[in-house]
């Protein structure tokens, strides 16, 4: 649900039950890794939401109070305490959520799940994009470029990669998210940073950055969103091969960890997230309910997609699942304006997000206006 504040904003009557379901989902996620012996480099050190500067400490305190309200094992850290966890001159405090939070290497997770599915008898056909679906003789037929598959029911799990489909596109925008990875840190460099608990870290910049410590002691550092006019139809837009946005992301890294000025970056990449006005999973039904798209995770789909798939399958099978009676399963996010208004609005908004902390002025007023229209920005 992209954070407790977002869930409470959207589904105030369901928030307690959603929290319980979310915790059950994470337990199931961990159990799946153990059952199928999937090594995804998982760590369970929790999650740190760090305040960038003293003026943002109130944000993490509010985060702490909300997590504490719903029974999380959470700790509020002042400047000294957060520096004992992760050393950065920017970090003025943090909310540390300790239970059922951690990090995984998503490629290893995907490959591990693939191996587990094959072991259960699932047949996978890769590099076979769906071109169309038709109903023939009472079943659905999926056409690809060189073959077809027949099925009684279909669950679409393509998330942002389906954001160019005209019906899905009305409510979903394919936003690019960028990330850098450093070379492995030496033991001496790691001592400059600390980070012995390997928590996942988010900060409170207006356009947030997030960071992880990998198994081989690299630091991955993400942020700096982008939107292209053809971004929902193009999985590799040319604009992502321009170096400037990655240099700016590297600059944010250097401000966060100036003690690592001798560290090099070895990798840079981006990928699409399926952003919606509610920043939470929703379900779109087609073919008289025999085909369901589950998506719109807005960047938080690694574990939540397990939950979304379970609810989507229940929809397809007509199960009497309690979750199907909850608002999140029965409602849809708002419609996003079409092109070119979508592109124009995205460019103004992303520029404002990127420069609001540094330059202020009209940018904060614009971001408040966008939020008033129903587009959460944090």
From TrEMBL:
Fetch the InterPro entries from UniProt. FAD-dep_OxRdtase, FAD/NAD-bd_sf
Q: Which Gene3D superfamilies match?
A: D-Amino Acid Oxidase, subunit A, domain 2 (3.30.9.10), FAD/NAD(P)-binding domain (3.50.50.60)
A single Pfam family, by name? DAO
Q: Which residues form the FAD dependent oxidoreductase domain?
A: 16-310
The organism's place on the tree of life at top rank: Eukaryota
Q: Which GO terms describe its cellular component?
A: cytoplasm
Please identify the protein, giving its name as recorded. Answer: FAD dependent oxidoreductase domain-containing protein
The species this protein belongs to is Capitella teleta (Polychaete worm)
């Amino acid at each position: 649900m992209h954070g407790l504040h977002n869930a409470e904003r959207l589904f105030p009557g369901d928030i307690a039950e959603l929290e319980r379901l979310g915790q059950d989902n994470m337990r199931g996620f961990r159990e799946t890794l153990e059952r199928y012996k999937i090594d995804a480099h998982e760590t369970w050190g929790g999650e740190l939401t760090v305040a960038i500067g003293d003026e943002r400490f109130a944000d993490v305190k509010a985060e702490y109070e909300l997590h504490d309200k719903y029974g999380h094992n959470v700790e509020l850290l002042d400047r000294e305490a957060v520096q004992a966890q992760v050393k950065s001159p920017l970090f003025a405090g943090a909310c540390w959520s300790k239970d059922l939070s951690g990090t995984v290497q998503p490629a290893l997770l995907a490959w591990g799940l693939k191996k587990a599915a094959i072991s259960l008898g699932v047949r996978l056909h890769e590099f076979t994009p769906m071109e169309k679906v038709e109903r023939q003789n009472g079943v659905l037929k999926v056409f690809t470029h060189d073959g077809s598959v027949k099925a009684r029911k279909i669950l679409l799990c393509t998330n942002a990669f389906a954001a160019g489909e005209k019906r899905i596109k009305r409510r979903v925008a394919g936003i690019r998210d960028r990330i850098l990875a450093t070379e492995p840190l030496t033991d001496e460099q790691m001592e400059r940073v600390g980070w012995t608990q390997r928590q996942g870290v988010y900060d409170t910049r207006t356009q947030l950055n997030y960071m992880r410590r990998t198994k081989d002691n690299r630091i991955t550092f993400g942020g700096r969103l982008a939107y292209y006019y053809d971004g929902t139809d193009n999985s590799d837009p040319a604009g992502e091969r321009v170096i400037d946005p990655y240099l700016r992301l590297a600059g944010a890294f250097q401000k966060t960890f100036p003690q690592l000025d001798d560290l090099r970056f070895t990798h840079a990449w981006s990928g699409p997230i399926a952003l919606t006005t509610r920043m939470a999973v929703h379900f779109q039904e087609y073919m008289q309910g025999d085909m369901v798209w589950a998506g719109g995770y807005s960047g938080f789909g690694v574990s939540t997609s397990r939950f979304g798939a379970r609810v989507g399958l229940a929809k397809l099978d007509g199960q009497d699942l309690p979750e199907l009676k909850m608002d999140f399963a029965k409602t849809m996010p708002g419609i996003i304006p079409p092109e070119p208004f979508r592109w124009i609005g995205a460019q103004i908004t992303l520029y404002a997000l990127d420069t609001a902390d540094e330059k202020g002025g009209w940018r904060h007023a614009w971001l408040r206006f966008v939020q008033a229209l129903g587009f959460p920005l944090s």
